Amino acid sequence: MILSEKYIKELVRTRYGLEVTVTSIAGYEDQNFLLKTDEGTSFIAKVNVNPTDPAFLEAQISVMQFLKQKDEQLGIQQVMPNLKGEGLTIEHDGSNVLYLRLLSYLEGTFMADLQECPDSVPQSLGAMLGGMDQHLKGFNLPAAYRYTKWDLAQVMDCQEQLHYIKDHEQRTMAAYFLLQYEMEVIPLRRHLRKAVIHNDANDYNVLVQDGKVSGIIDFGDMVESCLIDNVAVACTYLMFKNANPLRAAELFLSSYHSANPLTEQELSILYYLIAARLSMSVVTSAMQRSQSNNAHHFVSEKDAWTLLYQWIKLNPLKAQDRFNLCCGYPSVLGTETADTVLQKERKEIVGANLSISYQRKLKITRGALQYLYDDKGDTYIDCVNNVSHIGHCHPVVVKAMQRQLARLNTNTRYLHDSLVKYARMITATLPPKLKVCYFCNSGSEANDLAIRISRHFTKQKDVIVLDHAYHGTSTVAMELSPYKFDGKGGPGQQPYIHKGMNPDLYRGNYRYEDAEAGEKYAADIQNILKGLAAKGTGVAAFICETLLGVGGQIPLPEGYLQAVYRHVRAAGGLCIADEVQVGFGRVGEQFWGFELQGVEPDIVVLGKPIGNGHPLAAVVLTEEVAAAFNNGMEYFNTYGGNPVSMETGIAVLEVIRDEELQQRALETGNYLLEGLEKLKAKHQIIGDVRGKGLFVGAELVRNRENLEPAVPEIDEIVESMKERGFLISTDGPLHNVLKIKPPMLFNKENAGAFLRSLDEVLEGF
After folding, report:
1. What pLDDT, in 10s, does the model give residues 29-73?
2. Rounded (10°) angle between helices 643-658 and 417-428
3. What is the dihedral of CA 282, 284, 290, 292, to 10 degrees?
4. Which of 311, 331, 302 lies closest to 181 in space, CA to CA?
5. Which secondary-structure segment (H or E) carries 125?
6. How distant is the alpha carbon of residue 79 from its chain centre?
7. 537: phi > 0 → left, psi -120 to 50 → alpha, else beta; which?
8. pTM of the full predicted structure?
9. Cα–Cα dist 7/569, whole Å
10. For residues 570 and 188, what is the distance between their CA atoms, to the nearest angstrom?
11. How far apart are CA 594 and CA 164, in angstroms?
12. What separation in angstroms does the CA of 265 have from each of 255, 329, 382, 745?
């Protein structure tokens, strides 16, 4: 029932004895009207038609009257009684019942409408809200003990509405923050102080006059809940459109704390409560957009998304530290001294040849999709961790692991649906002949198994690899890895391992300008095969990454694998595609790297991204090869194919599909490569830019003519980028290639920021 201004005018005249002009104004659930008398006095009329909880309307009146009695200057509207002296007017209109409240009009501008927000606004809001909460301590209001969807205690209900957010990136971010609320806040809620709270000091409920908050209106979301929730809501909206949102929150908290002291425990979860309120806001807006055209329902949506994008870039520890300090509590940041002690202890008890990245070591304490947070409060964009393929702590994967771990985790000697389901999902992404799966725990183990299978099938031991290749850390995998066996401390090349040329189009024997480079590099493999044949020796397998990682972030020359596979099969060997660093949509154009070459391997090795950091790997092979391997000796792997691993793998594949991450890799990767090409034209130190999708390398040289590697310059660049918040590393036989392989959630904004920072860093070289 929509009420007319004429109707309200008559109702106010008969029930309040006032002659007024009436103007309808926006409202969320109530119907609101601005009233003016001839003398210039203004009122607000709030009308509810057939409310579900009339007692709560009475409760709102009670709390406003209570606060006015406590402090006339508090900035709370007065409840105007009707001619019978009642604060709530009930009017029957046919089958409808109207509940009318007449409130005094507070002068001021909505905080949302301020062009600038001076420091006095958060300070005065903190003082006012802190004073209000101080007065309400112990205030008993039974109607406030209720369920409302805007109570942060109920924020997990939003999980069921996440699907209303159609943008994949935004949906995942909201889901991530809901997961963090579940992990960080829910276990503490029963220990937190409870109170009757306003619960909605949003930017359209806070009025500002002469640079200070003049009033807080609308108790429609009032509830009995955790006191810190009230602080979180106010902080959230105070930070909207603010160039320095964290400082605005600090000013508010300092002032609030002076009026109504907060505890360290409450402050420790404030970051997550703010994120939860933002997530609640955007999820609700998305849901209501599908059901309503009331613009008031979406008034905060854009600002909420803007702040969410800012919030995920903010290290939670930094936020907690700043909140603590402004309230007079000690810092929570890690210290260099503590890190030095940790490094010393690590050196004493962990193998010394397990290296740590960067000159100034990082202690990473949390991951959030494409971001990493350290113990000093700094945030980094992860541009190199291709293990966390779909992002650190992706909520879908975390929840899948949690559910299955709580239900069952055991070996594969029992029937389990997930094992078969995942094997079918994996093989559905591969050529039809690749139909049989073996599951294990790491890429090293998978490569080891692949070689074992190939040797059994061919009855040969010799294997051809590419120079500078890396295939893992097991004994067999090390034998396959020139990067290791030719390196410092390496045992050297075994006689049954043969190295083919690294098909490097930038500094190899055959380069970009040679249209037949692929065939020529393949001829090198053919020559190795001829040499083996001349000695009466066959070949078990040829194995290579379908884009070369440690070899220098190198896409293979066109036609290379087609020719190599042809030569190897003619010699009786098997062709193994190592997709450990390359697969699962990373290259953008295709799901698997070998598809870029138009070939079908006999065996495919999967690892790293397959479990998004969970120890999972797989070997997928043809039925013919699998049948031969089934020779009576059981293959059993204690953890390979366990239920938790299978549910994890299923979740990863579903996220890649549902969030269209292969397309993201293509679009963002192309943007990144184009940007690097522009930097190459500007900075002589960049000799070559190469890659596919989000598998990218930039080779740095001192001289573009003789290709002298830019070492140690590249190490300085990596360190400088880290100081600017971007984690990258080096690769290549000469250690002069910038390796860029970020999680698939890496977006164009991240890429643009990376390119700008790299441009600045390269100015010094």
Report:
1. 789 999 999 898 999 999 999 998 999 999 999 999 999 999 888
2. 40
3. -110
4. 311
5. helix 120-135
6. 47
7. beta
8. 0.94
9. 88
10. 66
11. 37
12. 18, 11, 30, 32
